[in-house]
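Collaborator request log, item 7. Partner lab (contact: R.S.) asked for a structural prediction of Cytochrome bc1 complex cytochrome c subunit to inform their binding assays.
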Amino acid sequence: MNSLLEYRRHPAAVVVLLLAALATMGGLYTALKPTDVSAQSASYSEEDVKEGDKLFQANCATCHGEQGEGITEAGPSLAGVGAAAVDFQVGTGRMPLAAPNVQAARKEPQFDEEQTKQLAAFVASLGAGPTVPDAKYTDLEGADPANGGELFRVNCAMCHNFNGSGGALTRGKYAPSLEGVSPTHLYEAMETGPQNMPVFSDTNLSPQDKEDISAYLDEMHSAPNEGGNDLGNLGPVADGVFIWTIGIGIFLASAIWLTRKSS
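Returned to partner:
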């Protein structure tokens, strides 16, 4: 008993107990952590990776390094960003970046679908990360636009406007319009959090939630506007500008015309 007390009073006893507790907690987390419910599925051949490497060296290595390790003040490391980030950035024309700017703008893609897939395969080989979503979560079959609308208003509307028409942010940045963006790219944006956008992992928004949001935007942008000209769906700002510049202008012109008429 005395020897046990002596061990407990030893200066290293606290360190040993802490290490044992950390090892126990790590083991419990590994055993009990929730299974990944990700909707992502993509497999690439060695040929895809090889061809993607060639494209990467010719178009991306200048900024991101030959092995995607990143170059200071040129481009970030791509290790672990996953195929989804590449498919989004390259598929929407944001990359390769034409010139340094506050934010990469969407433009006509430089690479076709096959080349984009090959680039994604190479970057995916650099480290595990989000992959291109399964088609069953981007075909909008059975999606719930009403649920998607509620989720969009809670999580996205403060930046992208209530119908995804976009809006200004700070320091010259902006939330882009989501009109015309494919469900796959919308899903990938939520999954990877490009530029100023936060990441919405599957624990924040499930794969079905993401599809519902895409269905809401698709319905919003394809539905006819029963109220006349939507003025860009920019809300009270656009309405106010119209009223002050056009509406009041018409009233002033009418008043001047009537005054001249009466005189």
